[in-house]
């Protein structure tokens, strides 16, 4: 009787232990999500500051009699260092959080650029004129912040380790193979119309960018995850899949940048930033959901709130970029009134880098 009674007590204690384990696993997953989100936000903020520093350096040199080349100035090198630091932060974030959470957070760079642009304006505005001119930017920033908050709060809690076996298993799964087939067919059709039929519509070009970008972020997450595991002592670099993913990551990123460069020669940067962000984020989240099964096990409420966060962020980015003047031939983030001898600006800066961050 005593043995049966003790066995009954042990069975009764099992459910709380299992529940505690589930709670600790969930908290660990949420902690990793938070680390990834903070790394991504930090990275995008630093990249925005770096781009503006380098642009500031170009403007100062063009508007002065300083004979130095831009790469001989401390400001330009500081911008380069910050850019590398920011890109490293974004790269590392993919190793901790689901792809579906990290990709939409590139909206942070658009918010940061908008705020930096307003701060550096040196023109004198009356309060009413200032609010009327920048009301869309203020509303857009607010919406983007709200959308980002919803994305972080209701993002899927994926905590799968990016081991060689897991990456290979996802790569040969039939849902992803079917997705890849559809994407390849769509990419070839778009490329045919773009090259042979001269279909230079911005949607066509940016869809090509988005399709390549979805493969870039899928491979970035695999490479970053396997590198982090290797650093932690679980070596993954002896798996051939690591090098396959690395080559695909570099190749898709290069072609993605090439299509973006072509788009920048035909369309305004603000239009590219808004349309590109919406298309790239949508396609990348779809790829992540299929390849990494980000939303498996998530309830309908969390998925709907996450989708709502994406829509709000999309609207915020659209409003921010819509308020920007068309920068033709060249318009810096920093007001020309703040620079000496602004009439010495040369046309060679008219094709400066578009502030549209690759999903990478």
Automatic annotation (TrEMBL):
<feature type="transmembrane region" description="Helical">
    <location>
        <begin position="75"/>
        <end position="96"/>
    </location>
</feature>
<dbReference type="Pfam" id="PF05653">
    <property type="entry name" value="Mg_trans_NIPA"/>
</dbReference>
<feature type="transmembrane region" description="Helical">
    <location>
        <begin position="172"/>
        <end position="194"/>
    </location>
</feature>
<keyword id="KW-0812">Transmembrane</keyword>
<keyword id="KW-0472">Membrane</keyword>
<comment type="similarity">
    <text>Belongs to the NIPA family.</text>
</comment>
<feature type="transmembrane region" description="Helical">
    <location>
        <begin position="241"/>
        <end position="259"/>
    </location>
</feature>
<dbReference type="InterPro" id="IPR008521">
    <property type="entry name" value="Mg_trans_NIPA"/>
</dbReference>
<feature type="transmembrane region" description="Helical">
    <location>
        <begin position="271"/>
        <end position="293"/>
    </location>
</feature>
<feature type="transmembrane region" description="Helical">
    <location>
        <begin position="133"/>
        <end position="152"/>
    </location>
</feature>
<feature type="transmembrane region" description="Helical">
    <location>
        <begin position="34"/>
        <end position="54"/>
    </location>
</feature>
<keyword id="KW-1133">Transmembrane helix</keyword>
<dbReference type="GO" id="GO:0015095">
    <property type="term" value="F:magnesium ion transmembrane transporter activity"/>
</dbReference>
<protein>
    <submittedName>
        <fullName>NIPA like domain containing 3</fullName>
    </submittedName>
</protein>
<feature type="transmembrane region" description="Helical">
    <location>
        <begin position="201"/>
        <end position="229"/>
    </location>
</feature>
<feature type="transmembrane region" description="Helical">
    <location>
        <begin position="299"/>
        <end position="320"/>
    </location>
</feature>
<dbReference type="GO" id="GO:0016020">
    <property type="term" value="C:membrane"/>
</dbReference>
<feature type="transmembrane region" description="Helical">
    <location>
        <begin position="102"/>
        <end position="121"/>
    </location>
</feature>
């Amino acid at each position: 009787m005593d043995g049966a009674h003790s066995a009954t007590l042990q069975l009764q204690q099992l459910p709380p232990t299992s529940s505690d384990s589930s709670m600790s696993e969930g908290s660990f997953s949420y902690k990793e999500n938070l680390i990834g989100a903070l790394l991504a936000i930090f990275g995008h903020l630093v990249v925005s500051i770096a781009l503006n520093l380098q642009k500031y350096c170009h403007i100062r040199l063009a508007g002065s009699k300083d004979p130095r080349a831009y790469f001989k100035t401390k400001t330009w090198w500081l911008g380069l260092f910050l850019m590398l630091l920011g890109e490293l932060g974004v790269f590392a974030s993919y190793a901790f959080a689901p792809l579906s959470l990290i990709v939409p957070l590139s909206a942070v760079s658009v918010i940061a650029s908008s705020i930096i642009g307003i701060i550096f304006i040196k023109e004198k505005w009356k309060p009413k004129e200032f609010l009327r001119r920048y009301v869309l930017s203020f509303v857009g920033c607010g919406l983007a912040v709200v959308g980002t908050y919803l994305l972080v709060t209701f993002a899927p809690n994926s905590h799968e380790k990016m081991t060689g076996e897991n990456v290979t298993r996802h790569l040969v799964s039939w849902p992803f193979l079917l997705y890849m087939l559809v994407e390849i067919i769509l990419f070839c059709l778009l490329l045919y119309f773009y090259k042979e039929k001269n279909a230079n519509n911005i949607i066509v070009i940016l869809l090509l960018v988005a399709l390549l970008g979805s493969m870039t972020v899928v491979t970035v997450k695999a490479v970053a995850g396997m590198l982090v595991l290797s650093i932690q002592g679980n070596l993954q670099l002896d798996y051939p899949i690591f090098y396959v993913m690395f080559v695909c990551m570099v190749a898709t990123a290069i072609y993605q940048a090439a299509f973006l460069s072509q788009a920048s020669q035909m369309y305004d940067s603000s239009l590219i930033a808004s349309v590109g962000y919406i298309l790239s984020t949508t396609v990348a989240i779809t790829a992540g959901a299929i390849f990494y099964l980000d939303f498996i096990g998530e309830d309908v409420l969390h998925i709907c709130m996450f989708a709502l966060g994406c829509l709000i962020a999309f609207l915020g980015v659209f409003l921010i970029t819509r308020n920007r003047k068309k920068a033709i031939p060249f318009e810096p983030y920093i007001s020309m009134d703040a620079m000496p001898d602004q009439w010495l600006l040369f046309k060679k800066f008219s094709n400066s880098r578009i502030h549209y961050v690759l999903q990478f």
